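Hi there, hope your week has been kind to you so far. No rush at all, and the record is pasted right below.
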Amino acid sequence: MPPQNNQQKAKKKQVIQKNVASKHKLSKTSGAGGIKKQKTGHHGKPSYRALDDNTLTLVQQKRGGFFDFKPLPIKKKKITKGAFRFESNPTVHGYSSGYHESGITTDTTDHLWNRTQLGNGLSAFPSTAPNPLKGEKFYESNVDSILKAGDGARTDTAQTILSVPQVNGGGSAGHSGSNVKTTKQKQAHDLLRKTTVDMLRDNDMTPGVASVTFGALTVASMAPGNLASQAVDAKKIKASQIKDHWESQREEAKSRVEHMYQTLSPKEQARVSHHMSNVFKSLPSDRRLANGRCTSPVRDKKRVGTNALTGGGYVSSSNDVLPTPTHSLPIKGNMSNEEYARTATLYMTQPFRGRRK
C-alpha cells in the first residue's frame, strides 16, 4: 500500500468517524509504555524458512504459506466458500490433522470476500453475517495485510484446546478434530472474530502489527496446560505426543512472538499491545499480560498432579525474560512487507503444528 501523508490520514480518520456509529468508534488507545528491549541476535540458532518448515506440506513450503495469494482476486472475483480452509493431511505421528485458523477464521474470510465497499476508504461486512461481524465497517486498506498475516496463523486441530472468554464462563474447549469435547468452541472462536474486526478497524494497522497480533492471539487463545487439562476428554487428545510438551510448546511460541515484537517500531508495538490488552480483558482475571510485552508471563512447564497436559501457573510476578527461541527469523527481513509478515506468522505458530510426512 502506498504511504499516506498526514493530511490524507486526517481525512481518512474524519471519514470513518462520520460513518461509523458512536458505539463503534475506533479506539486510538496505546498499549503499555516503557517497553523493555530484548536481544534480537540469536547466535548459533538456525534461521526459520518456510521452505524448511516440516509442519507444512511440500506445496505449502513452496507457496510460503497456505492460501495462494498470487492471483489475488478478492476485489473482483467470487471466491469459493471455505477456500481459506485446508484439508486434513497425515503427520509423522500416526494421525492426520486439519488446521485451526487461529487468527482470521475461515468463515470470517468468507464474509470478508462478500464485503460491500462503501467508498471513502470504507467497507462493511454483509448484514447477513453473524455477530460479531454483522454489518461492521472497517478500512478497506487493511484487508490484504490482515488476510496475508492471518494465512500463517494456523495450528493443528489435533492439538488445539481453546481458551473460552470470561463472559461465556471461562474454561477451555476442544477443537473439532482434537478428540476433546468441543462445548463452547464457538464462543472461543468468537474472540478471534471480534479481534479481527478490531484489527480491520485500526487506522494504524501495518503488516507487522497484523502478523505479531495474530501470533500473540494464537498463544493466548491456545489454553495453558493447567486450563486445557480441565476440558472434558483432554486425556484423549488426538496428538497424544503433545501431552508431555504442551506448555513448553506454548513458551516456545511466546518467545518467537516476543522476538518478532521487538522488530516493530514503538508505535507498532503500542498497537499490538492495545489489541492484546483487549483480548486479555476478555479472558478470566487470572490471565494477564507480562509488563511491556504482548504475551503472558512465563509459566511452569511441569505437569500439575495428574493433569492430562503439562503446564502450571506463572512462575514470576515480575517482568521475567523469556527463553531464546530455538529458531530465529532473520532480522534483515522487513515486517512492512506483507509476504515477510506472513512468513513471520508461520514462524510464530509453528510450535502448534506437527511434522508432516
Residues 266-282 form the longest helix (17 residues).
